[in-house]
Amino acid sequence: MIRRLLSLVPPGTVAVGAGLALLGLASYVHLAVAGHSLTVADYGSLSVLWTIVFTLGIGLFMPVEQEVARLVAGRHSQGLPPGPVLARGAALAAGLLAAVVALIIAARGPLADRFFAGDGTMVAVLIGSLAALAVAHTTRGVLSGLQLFPWYGTQLGVDGGLRIALVALLGLTGVTNPVWFGAVLIVAPLISVAVTAPPILRAVGGGVPVAWAPLLRGLGLLTASSLLSQVVVNIGVINVKVLDPSDVATAGALLSALVLVRIPLFVFASLQASLLPGLATTATTGDRTAFNSLLRRALGVVTALGLTGAVLAVLLGPWLVQTLFDAPDVLGHGDFAWLAAATLAYLWAMVLGQALLALDRHRAQAAAWAVGVAALVVATLAPVATALRVELGYAIGSVVVAATMAALLRGTRSAGTTPVAAPHREAVTQG
């Protein structure tokens, strides 16, 4: 029976899913141990570091992974070596990293003062963590493109397992410096890359250099959408520090709450692997009935998922964040209701965004996220308590993105646009 079930899923799903599950578990363990080991102020600093790392890291380097995977897969199907794509992808990731690091160094003082209580070492950890993600995502693109899914899953699993082991060691030895908890985000990804280096090293070299155009053609819009989507889902923790730097309790509590209410996003990640190919296939064949049916089913699934998560979060959220993460008692059931509603709307936006990508409407998707971020900024300026301001920003921003995408899709159907398949997918998880 198990063998039959495994035969129904795409190749590599189990290996990648297992690695992803361990990496997701590591996020909860990491923050839980840190929450019980650090002071409220230090946990707030770690929360901001975590948020910046994964907002920029996923937003910038996940599109590089996707484009590298797409081009490597295409060359692999033609019997061409992946080395030239790896060289271009590594150069692109290095360029993006250099640009971000230059900005961080230029703003080192204000960043340390505003977000890390004047601790410049945390800024260095931020740079190191972004560099580790740049290396990890670029190499994962090669592994994915070559369909080496056991190696891909191994990299995810080693990363997650090391995070769990390292933070457990920090907790057992009584470490109370947030720098060490942040450094785990550097060490674990780099070791995971080293462990899975053999197939990457075999891919180095060989073949003539590839042109930049195929790699850059859709990367700009894809990166814009990726960054803006991460801003919507993550910016709340940073906004707390911006709006009220003295409120060290709310930043940490909010990150703990977001980790809980966004569990449905981790589940959606496992569905996403089959959603875009299905939508793209029906779009390519022009089967609008099948396209709309699949889109409705996907929206139904994420709605049920989001509502289930919302009920549990609203009922148990305040107790769970204090028990699991030792978070300050500053968020109530109403706060979790706003965060859960925002997550449901964000799930809708992710599904509708996949539909736009399947129709090759990258520009429309990026525009929808831009409109949502603008709405988030306006909502965050509301004259209410700090926590409610960031919760409203997340909720209203997500709703506006979903509504904009729905309107754009309705306009596509009305105009009779011919669907075209797109080879991209978005990242939906943090950390």
Walk me through what this model shows.
- Mean pLDDT is 85; it is low at 4-10 and 415-426.
- The protein is globular, with a radius of gyration of 21 Å.
- The chain folds into two domains: 1-215, no CATH class; 218-431, no CATH class.
- The chain is mainly α and 431 residues long.
- 83% of the residues lie in helices and 0% in strands.
- It has helices at residues 2-7, 13-37, 40-77, 83-106, 108-115, 120-145, 149-172, 178-195, 197-203, 212-216, 219-243, 248-261, 263-285, 288-325, 333-358, 362-380, 386-415.
- It contains 17 helices and no strands.
Average predicted confidence as pLDDT: 85
Shape: globular
User: How many DSSP-defined strands?
Assistant: 0
What fraction of residues sit in β-strands? under 5%
- Count the domains: 2
Largest sheet: none
**Helix-strand pattern, N to C?**
HHHHHHHHHHHHHHHHH
Terminal residue distance: 34 Å
Helical fraction equals: over 70%
Number of helices, counting only DSSP H or I runs of 4 residues or more: 17
- Unreliable runs, pLDDT <50, ≥5 residues? 4-10, 415-426
Query: Class by helix and strand content?
Result: mainly alpha
Radius of gyration: 21 Å
Keywords: Cell membrane, Membrane, Transmembrane, Transmembrane helix
Membrane topology: Multi-pass membrane protein
Transmembrane segments: 12-31, 43-64, 85-109, 115-136, 179-201, 248-269, 298-321, 336-359, 366-386, 392-409
Main location: membrane
